[in-house]
Amino acid sequence: MCRWMPPAAGLFPALARPVASTTTTTTTVPLPAAPSSASFCLACCALLLVAGTALGGCPNGPGGNGRDPLRVLEGANCSWTLERHTRSYNHLEGDVRLRRLYSANKFFLCIDKTGKVDGTRKKNYADSLMEIRSVSVGVVAIKSVSTGLYLAMSKKGTLYGSVKYNHNCKFKERIEENGYNTYASVRWKHNGRQMFVSLNGRGNPRRGHKARRRHPSTHFLPLPS
To answer: Which domains does the chain have, with CATH numbers?
Structure first.
């Protein structure tokens, strides 16, 4: 007689086999003992080691193997398993737009050949056509197409045209709630406050420390040329 003995707790069903006996008694092959928690953890770590090796290891170091994958067995966590990496926005860098910056005070921002920054009401004034280039996420460089000078801000908040591109030429571009853009100096601040590109009611540039984000003088619409 043969009798089937179900495996205990559903473990290792393929290992339980009936054994025929020449006598009337029935015997079964003993099942292996259930794995301990320590051996189970060791098996999981081994699987993580194999997976990490197949994926090229942890991506923090040169060549994607910045950490020793054997440290997984020591309880160390690879960054690619638990940490969220910063997203890449490189596709935004280098984006170029030709625009005229029209202020809420109804002036077009312009830079003349002497480097003077001013405002004009002429719609098609050559010095007001700007090349706005994204140099990093949310940061732009503004250059007059006709004069080739970059819009820049000094430490004192004075706007001027720079022949060469430098840190004074970087501005944070932000879309405000009213749909206008503001441009704040990346490099310079005044008493911890941002300093903004601004044209007053007469079209003259205001010092950056006298302008505030909510002032209409700091609001510009980038209009297509």
So the answer is: 38-82 (no CATH), 91-224 (2.80.10.50)
